Amino acid sequence: MNVLTDNFPTFAEGFLGTVELTVYSSLLALALGFVTASCRVAPVRSLRAFGAAWVTVLRNTPLTLLFFAVLLGLPRFGLVLPFRLFAVLALGCYTSAFICEALRSGINTVPAGQGEAARSLGMTFGQTLTLVVLPQAFRTVVPPVGSILIALVKNSAIAGAFSVTELLGTYRTLSELGYNIIWTFVWIAVGYLIITLAISAVFNLMERHWGVAR
């Protein structure tokens, strides 16, 4: 226990850093995922092409490479931000591709007749999507979106290699101080477990209320 009690402020700083990365990256991923999913099912060919390109590129690019591209590439174009914001951007954009596909799969479960009925009433594409299709699709995408956000928590560990304060990065400080590395990783794992279990509990509650009955 002395590894935890003697270094509680260090663990707490890393834990809160991971929570902050998770929250902001999740919000960005959900927003971008909604936009790109809308593009992928839009009747405009150019929007569908944009959505498909976004998903194809990001899903097939290693996250570490994306971190290098964002943290080292964007400053060359004059965009200079704190490393934490760059990390949120990289994590959010990467995860949005998976959120997009989860939402699109949910949209595809809604019978086509629902959209046709909405259009026959004079609704626009945006109204049909937001008022008719997505509320029904939401019920089926709660579990996969929860799994994607749990994966985001674990992916946030990469940010520590780019001078961003997060939970996994605490091992370097404690290793330099001579603490047992095994117990250091045990407490780090407990921290990640707390975050992922909290997300799982929230999405289990959402699924219980809005999920499709089996």
Automatic annotation (TrEMBL):
UniProt keyword Transport present: yes
SUPFAM superfamilies: MetI-like
Domain of life the protein comes from: Bacteria
PROSITE patterns listed in its UniProt record: ABC_TM1 (PS50928)
Transmembrane regions: 15-37, 49-74, 80-100, 148-169, 181-206
Entry membrane topology: Multi-pass membrane protein
InterPro entries in the cross-refs: AA_ABC_transptr_permease_3TM, ArtM/GltK/GlnP/TcyL/YhdX-like, MetI-like, MetI-like_sf
Pfam name, any one: BPD_transp_1
Keywords: Amino-acid transport, Cell membrane, Membrane, Transmembrane, Transmembrane helix, Transport
Gene3D superfamilies for this protein: MetI-like
Keyword Membrane: yes
Subcellular locations according to the entry: Cell membrane
Domain ABC transmembrane type-1: 15-203
Signal peptide coordinates: none
Family, similarity comment: Belongs to the binding-protein-dependent transport system permease family. HisMQ subfamily.
Protein name, UniProt field: Amino acid ABC transporter permease
Source species of the chain: Streptomyces caeni
